[in-house]
């Protein structure tokens, strides 16, 4: 006999405790009552005619009935099973689809994932006590990969959760060998199912209207103004009325109402001229929506203001012209000799000069004089360098092409605590860093290259200004998010701490819903917007399951195991209680 609910040692302790408690209660009888009678003659005759041991046998029968009732109830708690009655041993593998679309909620109020867990439990219970079970999921989060007992398998099913990120796929079929494999799924994100796998569908169509794109961008003609792009798609079988709202800091809000036909996608451009810097949230509402994760999206609006920029140079027509053309910039030209008298700006641009001490504001430096805080010179000089194909992924290099750029001469810089944006680790040409201040360092003189003549140079300069003066915002899908800030603390919009996992290279966290998160450490701060913006996930009704599979899944129900005796034990206990009541009223028990 095995027990599904409790371990063997726990079950034995429960049975012993129950028996001891019942025996103790029957042993501790209340003292007899003293009654005054006028004569002992009648009672002496009654005692002579009575059998001396009758009370003991009545007490013993009552004790045995109570013990049987108590032990039957105690054993039913552990859900015992007799292997000889439950059939042959089997190897059963149950794979539960825990991809994001399984969070879709049907009209009954239950999610597909909740229904999937119920079906998985049924599949596990249909085997015998001698069978072995393996529980897996489609995102690799299920603990362990070995076959276990039914009780452990049920515990593992209870610990499964919907995964909000990462790729979902059916585990390799060879992991299960010749086992019976069942796959509980809605068939949306996991469509490739191996052969010899029994599909158990939990798909039910739901109404869903979701946000598939949300982005903030500066107006090209006026970078101090921003607009929002909002895209909404209707993945329902019927037309839907949608109410959309975009909220910002200081109570700013925009509202739109429109209708969408089935499958229709609508884009809206919203003017954020009245919005101030800070979090921005987009929210949609439609009747009977069954998928909540794509009803909200977050972004962060940088500071749309005029920047005070000081260009420290002995004369540079390229830089002066481009900086004056940028409508975000209020430019001041400063010579190196008068730098000490300048009021600190929002950004310094150093041309062929750098002070010995780093300023307290961000810096763009073009061929600066050798100073320690911008990287040490090696004393070597490089000549005739082509920048083609040496660009790295970085916000400063977005949409910047250097395929035709050639540098005549440049002083080599030692590799330090910075990112190489252009060049190699041995020959870094454009660098970016955060210590001691945020900076972009172009190691060569603009006059010694054709970079100022390239169409990408204004874009490069504008990107550098934006990256240095704005709040760094990272957009990420839901799931595990990694930020290259070691030892950082993560908080949400309400200031609550978010659990993190630290590593030498950075910090990672996994939000359980869309949101805006602040990641802070000694190396700086990054704002992360985590959203579900994925048309493939929002289309929760795009199931690959066939009509035959769906009908079979609705009609079939796995049989319950016959080896579970807890219902029989409860019935026995109830019957004995009735017997005890009947014998007590006939003076057969005490």
Give structural notes.
- The protein is α/β, with parallel strands linked by helices and 590 residues long.
- α1 runs antiparallel to α3, α3 runs antiparallel to α10 and α4 packs antiparallel against α5.
- The chain has ten helices and 29 strands.
- The strands form eight sheets. It has a seven-stranded mixed β-sheet, with helices on one face.
- The protein is elongated and about 135 Å long.
- α4 links the parallel β3 and β4.
- About 1% of the residues have low confidence.
- It is 23% helix and 30% strand.
- It starts with a strand and ends in a 5-residue tail after the last helix.
Chain-wise SSE layout:
Layout: E1 2-3, H1 8-27, H2 41-49, H3 54-77, E2 80-81, E3 91-96, H4 112-125, E4 132-137, H5 150-159, E5 180-185, E6 198-201, E7 209-219, E8 222-234, E9 240-247, E10 253-260, E11 265-271, E12 278-286, E13 296-301, E14 307-312, H6 317-325, E15 329-334, E16 347-351, E17 363-366, E18 377-386, E19 406-413, E20 419-423, E21 428-433, E22 439-442, H7 456-469, E23 473-477, E24 481-483, E25 489-491, E26 501-503, E27 506-509, E28 515-521, E29 524-531, H8 535-538, H9 547-555, H10 566-585
Parallel strand pairs: 3-4, 3-5, 5-6, 14-15, 14-16, 16-17, 17-22, 23-29
Antiparallel strand pairs: 1-2, 7-8, 8-11, 9-10, 9-12, 12-13, 18-19, 20-21, 21-22, 24-27, 25-28, 26-27, 28-29
Helix pairs in contact: 1-3, 3-10, 4-5
């Amino acid at each position: 006999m095995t027990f599904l609910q409790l371990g063997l040692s726990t079950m034995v302790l429960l049975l012993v405790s129950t028996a001891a408690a019942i025996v103790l209660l029957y042993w501790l009888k209340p003292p007899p009552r003293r009654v005054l009678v006028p004569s002992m003659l009648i009672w002496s005759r009654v005692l002579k005619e009575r059998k001396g041991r009758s009370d003991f046998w009545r007490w013993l029968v009552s004790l045995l009935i109570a013990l049987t009732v108590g032990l039957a109830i105690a054993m039913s708690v552990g859900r015992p099973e007799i292997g000889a009655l439950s059939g042959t041993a089997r190897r059963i593998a149950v794979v539960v689809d825990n991809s994001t679309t399984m969070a879709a909620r049907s009209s009954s109020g239950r999610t597909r994932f909740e229904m999937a867990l119920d079906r998985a439990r049924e599949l596990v219970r249909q085997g015998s006590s001698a069978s072995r079970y393996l529980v897996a999921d489609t995102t690799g989060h299920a603990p362990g990969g070995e076959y276990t007992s039914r009780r452990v398998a049920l515990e593992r099913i209870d610990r499964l959760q919907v995964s909000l990120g990462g790729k979902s796929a059916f585990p390799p079929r060879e992991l299960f060998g010749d086992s019976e494999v069942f796959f509980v799924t809605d068939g949306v994100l996991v469509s490739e199912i191996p052969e010899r796998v029994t599909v158990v569908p939990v798909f039910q169509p739901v109404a869903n209207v979701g946000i598939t794109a949300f982005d903030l961008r500066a107006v090209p003609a006026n970078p101090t103004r921003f607009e929002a792009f909002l895209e909404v798609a209707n993945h329902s079988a019927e037309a839907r009325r949608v109410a959309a709202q975009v909220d910002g800091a200081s109570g700013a809000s925009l509202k739109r109402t429109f209708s969408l036909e089935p499958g229709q996608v609508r884009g809206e451009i919203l003017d954020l001229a009245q919005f101030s810097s800070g979090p921005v949230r987009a929210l949609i509402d439609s009747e009977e929506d069954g998928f909540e994760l794509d009803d909200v999206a977050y972004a962060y609006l940088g500071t749309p203001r005029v920047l005070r920029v000081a260009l420290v140079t002995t004369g540079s027509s390229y830089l002066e012209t481009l900086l004056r053309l940028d409508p975000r910039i209020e430019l001041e030209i400063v010579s190196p000799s008068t730098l000490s008298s300048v009021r600190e700006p929002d950004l310094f641009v150093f041309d062929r000069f750098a002070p010995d001490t780093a300023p307290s504001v961000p810096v763009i430096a073009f061929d600066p004089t050798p100073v320690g805080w911008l990287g040490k010179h090696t004393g070597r000089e490089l000549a005739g360098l082509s920048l083609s194909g040496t660009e790295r992924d970085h916000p400063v290099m977005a949409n910047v092409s250097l395929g035709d750029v050639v540098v005549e001469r440049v002083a080599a810089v030692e590799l330090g605590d910075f990112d190489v944006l252009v060049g190699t680790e041995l020959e870094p040409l454009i660098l970016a860093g955060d210590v001691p201040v945020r900076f972009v360092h172009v190691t060569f003189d603009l006059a010694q290259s054709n970079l100022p003549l390239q169409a990408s140079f204004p874009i490069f300069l504008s990107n550098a200004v934006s990256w240095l003066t704005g709040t760094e915002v990272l957009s990420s899908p839901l799931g595990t998010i990694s930020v290259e800030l070691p030892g950082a603390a993560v908080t949400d919009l309400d200031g609550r701490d978010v659990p993190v996992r630290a590593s030498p290279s950075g910090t990672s966290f996994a939000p359980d819903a869309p949101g805006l998160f602040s990641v802070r450490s000694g190396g700086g701060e990054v704002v992360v917007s985590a959203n579900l913006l994925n048309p493939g996930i929002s289309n929760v009704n795009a199931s690959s399951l066939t009509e035959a599979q769906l009908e079979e899944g609705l009609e079939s129900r796995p049989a319950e195991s016959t080896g579970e005796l807890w219902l029989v034990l409860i019935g026995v206990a109830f019957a004995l209680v009735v017997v005890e009541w009947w014998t007590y009223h006939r003076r057969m028990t005490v």
